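Q: Could you fold this chain for me?
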Amino acid sequence: MKDQVLLTEPWLSWAVEIQSIAQNGLTYSKGIFDIERYQRLREISAEMLSHKTSIPIDKIKKLFCQEEGYQTPKIDTRAAIFKDNKILLVQETDQLWNLPGGWIDVQQTIYRNTIKEVKEEAGLDVKPHFIIAIHEQHKRNYPPFAHRVLKTFVMCHLLGGEFQANSETINSDYFSLEELEHLNVNNEKNTKAQMQLCFQAYHNPHWVTQFD
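A: Sure. Below is the predicted structure, expressed as structure tokens.
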């Protein structure tokens, strides 16, 4: 409940807007004093987020205070892969379970990035079928980021492959809808509600993509 309250507090929108104004100012400003002011504004936005969410300030600055150019949302893909009415999850080194996925690399598309991330994290070959939903991270996931993130959930057909432990994931398994209730998941990457949405899409032959 506390996490949901945080997601709706106005300070989050203010911090994000300050961060965006600062980065755009750094992109187009030429004067040294203007650059210094915008750099300080970006630091303030990071400090606000760190103070209110308890995310280490170094992590926030690393993720969101080193980018260049006009600010646009980051895009993340999460793959929904089903077998025997169960969904595939991977267990990361922090012991939490997630849908396989990650940031879209600069030279990738949603389609190709989904294939790449599933292969890297789950050792499986898949064919993306359709987009289940596109969610704004700050509305649905916790902790909120200083940067807008669009989380793309993609239904995939399983082609083959086999899991092998790697630097990111230590295990993989399939879970029923009921079993999800007992799992520890990383709400920053995907919530149980988002996993449940994937089940709804799997059972609905006429699914229409949801988007924020």
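A (continued): Residues 32-53 form the longest helix (22 residues).
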